[in-house]
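Standup notes
- HV: blocked on the assembly model, inputs below
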Amino acid sequence: MKDIVHRVGIKAPIAKVYDALSTIEGLARWWTTTTTGSSRIGGDVAFRFHTETGDEIGGFDMEVLELVPEQKVRWRVKAGPAEWVGTDIEFLLSRQDDYTIVMFGHRKWREEVEFMAHCSTKWATFLLSLRDLVETGKGRPAPHDLRIGNWH
Amino acid sequence: MKDIVHRVGIKAPIAKVYDALSTIEGLARWWTTTTTGSSRIGGDVAFRFHTETGDEIGGFDMEVLELVPEQKVRWRVKAGPAEWVGTDIEFLLSRQDDYTIVMFGHRKWREEVEFMAHCSTKWATFLLSLRDLVETGKGRPAPHDLRIGNWH
């Protein structure tokens, strides 16, 4: 099994970061504007991605496995690209200095495919979108996300 | 062993990307301005990091293991933080659509420590600095790099 890991520090209270990770409204403001469903434990959250002109280009359905206020959010991918199905995504929160630290893991990839490397870089840019949202009120959710190559 | 992987696409000829990865001058323009040494096979490249006010805060010495023009650059870390020593860093280049694709790997971490997650995110930002350098002529090498948290 292969894992993508990242770490960002956000100059904001842990409650604000947890809110952006555990509510539909929060997720829609840093990952993808088309986020729907239930973000409670056992619920399914549907993330969809569109081009800037509105054509749907894919998405993921996640089951919420764990929610520990101000500490942890964990999802399992139920539907989406084959490489993602069955993988887990986690956000662990803690405080260091004046920062809320987000330890991110996208775990249990079956193989280190080229798409995994793309997703690793893309996750970094979305975590910085999360940081910008919480620190400044403005993230860069899809379809306004930072392009990193021919795969978007 | 744990690996960091990333993938970015750069709208520029493969030779320009290879040049930025295989010369001291190129490396200094996207990773850290204080880059010295020999970038030939068997040479050692010294990367040093400073604060914006000029205090040295650390660095790495790399031996150049492989150089295949327009295809591959690979280094081994000889000195630096304990977690980095003995790890390998590789850049594999190819063409897809109108892009030069950089497949990046920082391989053979002994453990998935918090510092590895920080370095994963940081590598993403430096690879986007490489992209910006090659596409626009201006990268964001340290000490002008994008800060991602309390560890810089």
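- HV (later): unblocked. The first helix of chain B runs from residue 14 to 22. The beta strands of chain B are 2-10, 34-37, 44-50, 56-68, 72-79, 88-96, 99-109.
- Next: hand off to the docking folks.
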